[in-house]
Amino acid sequence: MRGPTVSASDTETIGVFVVDDHAVVRRGVTAYLEILDDVTVVGEAGNGREALERLDSLTVLGLPMPRVVLMDLMMPEMDGVAATAEILRRYPTMRVVVLTGFGEVERVNVALENGAAGYLLKDAGPAEVVEAIHAAARDEVFLDAAVARQLAQQMRKPNTGVGGLTNRERDVLVLIAQGKSNREIADQLVISERTARTHVSNLLGKLGLRSRTQAVLLAIREGLVNPAS
């Protein structure tokens, strides 16, 4: 089942869905987000299975759908890795930002392979949470620099190296790794946004990657950019 298309430009506010098995954490994040003018919490859940059920209910009832899902990794019944894959299968225009700790690198990499748009450390401050949400809503990537290099070194080897990319695709890869959206890539390369999207899709396909986040990590591993860029 595929859900309705959700675009960051369809509304003035960004709909967010919070998934965490710790009620205190979930309520704390929700309470903070609810005071922001441009963010609306449209739901929350205590595990991946509950998240899927509630997202499906929003669809059936015709209620506003989230643009961004904040997803904990370690949860009962269905963890964040499996939930990320299933959410993006059903709702491919949503963006999932993983909530993680330093000790969950392997699980984070699997979540990124399943399509997660980025990750946020659980001890991140409010400003970083907002930055991650806005980045995901713009189809940009949010990676904490402190663990990005560690993740990059442990990510699975792509089908081909960056040497298989055209010069333009390599330029696009660097711009993705610098956090540029498709529109910003188009402006910088003086091409249409549609052409920029095509280049992004082509290079991900050539590299056997499923997300822009994986592309950023590959660029870091290959030395094209550094985690702080």
UniProtKB/TrEMBL annotation:
Alphabetical list of InterPro entries matching this protein: CheY-like_superfamily, NreC/VraR/RcsB-like_REC, Sig_transdc_resp-reg_C-effctor, Sig_transdc_resp-reg_receiver, Tscrpt_reg_LuxR_C, WalR-like
GO BP annotation list: phosphorelay signal transduction system; regulation of DNA-templated transcription
Gene Ontology MF terms in the entry: DNA binding
Top-rank taxon: Bacteria
HTH luxR-type domain: residues covered: 158-223
SMART domains: HTH_LUXR, REC
Chain positions found as 4-aspartylphosphate: D72
Keywords: DNA-binding, Phosphoprotein
Response regulatory domain segment(s): 15-137
Protein's name in the database: Response regulator transcription factor
